[in-house]
Every structure is written in structure tokens, then in C-alpha cells.
Amino acid sequence: WQAVNPQDAPLVRAALAAHDTHPAQPYRAEFRLRTPAGAERWYMATGAASERDGQGQALKLSGVILDITERKTAEAALHRAATTDGLTGLPNRSVLNDRLSVVLRAAPRRGEHGALLFIDLDHFKRINDTYGHLVGDQVLRAVAHRLAGQLRAEDTLARLGGDEMVVLLPWLGADLAAAAAGAERVGHKLLAVLSEPLRIDGLVFSLHASIGGTCFPKLDGESATDLMREADTAMYAAKSAGRGTLRLYQAGMRDQVASRLVLEADLRHALQHGGLSLALQGQWRPDGRLAACEALLRWQHPVRGAVSPAEFIPLAEEGPLIIDIGRWVLREACSVLARWLALGIELPMAVNVSPRQFCEPAFVHFVLDTLAAAGVPPRLLTLEITEGVLLEGDAPARLRLLADAGLRIAIDDFGTGYSSLMYLKQLPVHELKI
């Protein structure tokens, strides 16, 4: 008995007692035994009483004991695979849905309300694109650890996939107002801990997230699927509000998200069917002579008319569409420069480059190939990037490749981000736009 795992001993004693009381029922038990070396292995014992005393009490058992350690190990692995996320060790979508359904059924009986938070890391794809998936995986594990450290024992943090995680906050108060206040308190705490610098393999990351939440129960018949959809909708509302924010679901948000999806589809159609165009803004010398120009993207919607870049550029940046648009702009700009050259005009042109496009592995090659195909000297093209791009791991190397090829580099909106003049002195930057 000293070798039997204390957690298993009551089950073994109960199986023995059951066989003693009902001799026709064989004795069977599974338990862990400590080996002489100090390790533990799983065993299955089965048998029956082979000798009894005058009162019928069992004196001896005859049977077999089998080592089932490998079977138990395999069962545990299968259970982990079915219930946990392999990367972070967090519960997976299946476990989250089960727990959410249980909490939804119990909420009316308990008279308490809870909330669901949907977390999406902002611009996480840049980390994978720039540093590789191994570093990205380490970041996700560190994020999961940080978030879990801010939650209660009864809360559930699950990973759905990619950089999407969900927090179930089961009991936050007796009414929806209390639940909303609790959800906002926890949500802002999670945003704060995520914004703290994260060090991975000598690299420092500054992460931000968009969080959408919804409270429950709001009405009868509410399902786990309904709540997941609402939290996801609120998360997109948070992204639309400028990222790094928290939004709780409100009636009407779904219509806003649906409208954005329609606008995104229209934008993709415009890109594929000639609905986009470039406008050119002159850069003038003090004496009034035209020195250069900047290409500005414009979209004339067939129904809505002119759509502001402030509306459709952030929409495109939420997904891979911004990369396709960026490539189109560069090709179109080089085409214009080539037509001017044919007319004997050499006027430099600046083109904005989104951070996501700049971080594409083939970006430098694409720019140089596009210039070569159009027959445009690199010195006529200026690439405008934002300060945040300078903090990407291989940004200096990429900028030097572009500058060495003859392109000019400009920093757009200088003074709103990193703003280190000392750091800029080490980079091939030709212009600052303040």
C-alpha cells in the first residue's frame, strides 16, 4: 500500500470491497505504483478470491497484474491532442465551446452574468514574415503565459488558431452592467500587460491587440455560437477604431461589419477592374519650380463616388489586399515615369509603402524588377515609409539594398513614432516628412 499512488488507493480499496461483497463480480482496478527507482508506472490488476476464511472473508486473491503504462501514456496524449492547443498548451476551441455551453446553461440558475473576450494581436503577421515562424511561435507562447497570469482560476483562456485567443469570464455580477464593467476591467488589464516590451532571443517586441467582448446571458436561447460571433464582431469594431483598443458588442455592430465586408469586396473588384487611379501632388521649390511629385491613391466608387483613402487604406491593411494594392501602385507609378521619360521629362516621384508590404520577403526584388521592366532609373523613385518600419529586424539591411540600387528613402510623418535622429544617422534615409 505504501507504493500505491495516494490518489489511486481509494479506488483500489473500493474495488476490493466490491469483490468481497459480491464474489461473482471479479476484482478489477487500475492504479499507479512507485517503482524501487522512484518512478511511477500504471498497472491493471484483475482476479478473484482464491481462499476465504470460515466467515467468507477473502484471504487471498489470484489473478494477473499487467503493466499498462504505454497505454495510459497514449491515452493521455490523445486526450491532450483533442483538448489542448499543441503550441501554447491552452484549451482549444472544442473545450472552450463545451465550457461556454455549460456556463450558459448555469447562468440563469445562478442568477449571474459573464462575458466572452475575443483577442487578436495587431500586425502579428509582420513578426512571422520578418523573423520566421519559430520566433512567432515563441511570441505566441509568451503572450499566452502573460494573459493567463492575469486571469482567475475559474476563467478559461483558449487559443482558436493563429494569433486569435478567447477568454471566458464566467461570473462577473448579477446583471449585464456589472458584467460589462468586469469585462472592461479585465480587457484593459490584458491590453496593458500585452503592451509591455517582450524579449525573445535578444529581440524586443512591442505588441498590441484588439479585443472585442460580449456579455451573457442577454436573452433566452443564446448559444455559444451566437456569443462567439458577437465577440468576433466587436473585435473588428475595435480594429476599426484604431487597434489596440477594447470594444463591447452593441446592436448595430454587425451591420457595420457587414458594410465593411461589402466595401472590401468592392475595393478588391476596383483593383482588378481598373477602379483605382493615381493622383499626383507636386513638390515645389521656393522659386516656384516643380521639383518632384508624390503619387496618391484614389478610388472612385461607381455608387458611393470618391471614397476617402482614410477609409479604404486601413481596411486594406487589415488583410493581404494592401500588398496587392501596393504592387499595383508601384507598377502604375513606374509606368507613368516611363511615359514621361519617353517625352524627355525626368521628374522624381514618391510612393507610399505600407509596413506590411515593406516586410514582404520579396519586396526589394519586386521593386527592382518593376523598375527594370519599365526602364526607369531607380533615382527617379522615392519610397516613403513610416517610422515604425525602422524597428523591424531586417529593415536597415533592406533600406541599404534599395539605397545602394539608387532609390531614395523618405520617412513619412516623422515625429509621430520612434523619432530618433541618432538612429536615422545610421540609415540611408534621404528625406524626412514632418
Overall description:
43% of the residues lie in helices and 26% in strands. The protein is α/β, with parallel strands linked by helices and 434 residues long. Strands 11, 12, 13, 14, 15, 16 and 17 form a 7-stranded mixed beta sheet that branches. A 5-stranded mixed beta sheet has the order 5-6-4-9-10, sandwiched between helices. Strands 1-2-3 form a 3-stranded antiparallel beta sheet, sandwiched between helices. It starts with 8 loop residues before the first helix and ends with a strand. The model has no long low-confidence stretch (mean pLDDT 88).
Low-pLDDT stretches are none
What integer value in Å does the Rg equal? 31 Å
Straight-line distance between termini:
78 Å
SS content category: alpha/beta
Please tally the helical runs, counting DSSP H or I stretches of 4 or more residues: 14
Provide a compact summary of the structure.
With 434 residues, the protein is of the alpha/beta class. Helix content is 43%, strand content 26%.
